[in-house]
Amino acid sequence: MHVTIHIVEDDPGVGDALSLLLQQLGHETIVYADAEAFFRHTPPVDGDTVIVDLCLPGMPGMQVIRWLKSLNLQLKIIAISGQPQASIRRMLQGETPDILLRKPLREEALTKYL
4-aspartylphosphate: which positions carry it (predicted)? Predict the structure, then answer.
């Protein structure tokens, strides 16, 4: 089964580093600079993984996660953030993502969920 990892991350350094790491682990990746770019692309399919930065310019990452959950697909959704815990709680707006990882990301923490 063909699985793609979609990375929605506005920091080009973080997006490129994540993409490179995941490609070295044998995954196909697509990086999007913001939610709007992600929405313009073909949506993910069953089995795909989507990594979403919670603090995106324009549309917030939590809104992307809500949309993904509304698709009723079998997706792995990983929220990431480098913000302080209090800011993350505000961004989540009372919701809980399936997986939340804090930046800086460690390879073993990320690969544990793939």
Answer: 53
CA nearest to 110, candidates 14, 18, 12, 8: 18
| Residues 23 and 47: beta-carbon distance below 8 Å | no
What residues make up the domain containing 94?
4-111
Of 42, 34, 49, give the one whose Cα is nearest residue 111.
49
CATH code for position 53: 3.40.50.2300
Please name the amino acid found at residue 13. G
Burial class (CB in 10 A: 0-12, 13-18, 19+), 95: exposed
30 or 114, which is more confident?
30
pTM over 0.90: yes
Q: How far apart are CA 112 and CA 114, in angstroms?
A: 6
Q: What is the pLDDT of residues 37-54, one digit of tens each?
A: 999 999 999 999 999 999
**pLDDT reading at 1 higher than 90:** no
